[in-house]
From TrEMBL:
Belongs to the cytidylate kinase family. Type 1 subfamily. Keywords: ATP-binding, Cytoplasm, Kinase, Nucleotide-binding, Transferase. Residues 13-208 form the Cytidylate kinase domain. Its main location: cytoplasm. It comes from Algimonas ampicilliniresistens. GO terms for molecular function: kinase activity. InterPro entries: Cytidylate_kin, Cytidylate_kinase_dom, P-loop_NTPase. Pfam families: Cytidylate_kin (PF02224). This is Cytidylate kinase. The lineage of its organism: Bacteria, Pseudomonadati, Pseudomonadota, Alphaproteobacteria, Maricaulales. The keyword Repressor does not apply. It catalyses: dCMP + ATP = dCDP + ADP; CMP + ATP = CDP + ADP. The keyword Kinase applies. Its EC number is 2.7.4.25.
Length: 220
């Protein structure tokens, strides 16, 4: 059954999950499959962190970070520097500031309103609570650390697996315990564990799950 036959348009899919669980690559593939746009919301926070640091500020300064977030330039989200390990850690620190999250809320909701797959940490719980389908992607910490290690080494970064795992554990704790929009599955989210799945297998599993949800809604 086609997408248009299964559900109304625009279609919104919320993909939340832990760092390096594969949700970003999965979301891109899902967006292509369903013919909608994709937004990696984590890049918004990375861009804020990048611009704060470039201006000589501190990622711990909520006021400065929020001001930059309110005028973020979406055309810079493809900057390869945003995928670096340093930007990942800085983004995690910027994202704990409530004013920063508030400043980026409208941008994300406006993007979703046109039909999209959004991935991040609070899409199903805060950004798109009425999304057609919500996924929560996770994997064992050691597996995620290995994936991130290989990614960073591929970028030419001099890191160790131990340091990557330590950083990942710290980020998990910070994401799950922040006061505003902590990382957690939405009550109606569907869990996808990618620990033992290749990206192709994860995409196939996600499509089967999403289609089942959309079919059930169309029939209900």
């Amino acid at each position: 059954m086609t997408k248009t036959a299964m559900t109304k348009t625009p279609l919104t899919i919320a993909v939340d999950g832990t760092f390096s669980s594969g949700k970003g690559t999965l979301s891109k593939r899902l967006a292509t499959h369903y013919g909608v746009a994709h937004l990696d919301t984590g890049k918004l926070y990375r861009a804020v962190a990048r611009d704060v640091l470039a201006a000589g500020g501190s990622v711990d300064d909520a006021k400065t970070a929020a001001k930059i977030a309110s005028s973020i330039d979406a055309s810079t989200l493809d900057d390869p520097f945003l995928k670096s390990g340093g930007m990942g850690s800085a983004a995690s620190k910027v994202s704990v500031h409530p004013p920063v999250r508030a400043a980026l809320l409208a941008f994300q909701r406006d993007f979703a309103a046109k039909g999209a797959v959004l991935d991040g940490r609070d899409i199903g719980t805060v950004i798109c609570p009425d999304a057609d389908v919500k996924l929560f992607v996770d994997a064992d910490q050691e597996v995620r650390a290995e994936r991130r290690y290989k990614e960073l080494r591929g970028y030419g970064e001099d890191v160790t697996l131990e340091s990557v795992l330590s950083d990942l554990r710290e980020r998990d704790h910070r994401d799950m315990n922040r006061a505003v929009a902590p990382l957690k599955p939405a009550v109606d989210a569907h869990l996808l564990d990618t620990t033992h799945l290749s990206i192709d297998a994860a995409v196939s599993s996600a499509i089967i799950l999403i289609d089942a949800v959309l079919n059930a809604k169309a029939q209900g």
